[in-house]
Amino acid sequence: MNNIKVGSPRTLAILAVILLLGGIAYIYLGTSDEPDPSQPTERMLMIGNSFTYQNNLEKMAEELIETQSLGRRAVESERVAFGGYRLFDHVDDFDENAPDSQLREFFVDGTPDVKDWDLVIFQEQVEIPGLPTFEMEKNRSLESALQLGQLAHETGADVMVLETWGNAFDPEDPTNPYPEFPEMQTHLSVAAVDIVDTLIENDIPAVIAPAGEAFLIVYNDVISSGGNPYDEDSWFLLLFSDDLEHSSVAGSYLAAAVIAATQSQQPIAETDWAPPGIEANFAAYLRQVADRAAFPTEQ
């Protein structure tokens, strides 16, 4: 239990030894650097919405955590995520024991093995507070985050809040109800901080995985290079699927890299795994961005 410890000295020491003694980079598939069978499997649960399940985000994070450790760690991930769900929708399902929610099984009714979590991550829905009209639901969001955090904490798990990213709608489109990306992202980042502050004030240690900040870094990099983030071929727009809201494979990969770097408190840039379809130079850039977001004081 509690093998995943965000930034713990024991984790850092183990990773340091691995890096010093491993001597070779982990290669995805077909290497001897498989997860160490003598170590217990670390269990990770992600709770969220369509942003969370897009492109099997939890499996990307699982793969990156294992690969970053040079294959010495085994991670098993689960998710509870439904399209459009807000954190209070999950809490309502839990309180009502809804048949389509696994949270009660994962936190209360399941066997000890089922309830044994090392890391629980949850992500709020983008409209809270991405749209100003949803400000009234902020208190419900915080209350629900606290209830989920308490449930996770009672299992002994570490708690991580996955910062939601804004959308890439053209700000010059008069039908777009959202503010321009940087302003929208500021609202979402503040919401993540508020959730973590609420958890910490109630004696539940928690950290932010700043995925939204990573998206903003890419946005600003495009501008710094003289480009337009909303151009079809910009690296910023490549983070989004065709609806300009959900992440593309590249966007999910960036979020997963932020999760892995935040969880281990180790840079992810040198980890060479990437899912099919992402060019190597773009994948390397996204891992560097993940480090810049996860470790801003080191830049």
Description:
It is a single chain. With about 300 residues, this protein is α/β, with parallel strands linked by helices. It is about 45% helix and about 10% strand. The chain has 11 helices and 5 strands. Helix 8 (about 180-200) links the parallel strand 4 (about 160) and strand 5 (about 205-210).
Q: Low-confidence parts, pLDDT < 50 over ≥5 residues?
A: 1-32
Largest sheet: 5 strands, parallel
CATH homologous superfamily annotation: SGNH hydrolase
Helix-strand string = HEHHEHHEHHEHEHHH
CATH topology: Rossmann fold
Number of domains: 1
Please state the overall shape, judged from the principal axes of the Cα atoms: globular
Total helical segments: 11
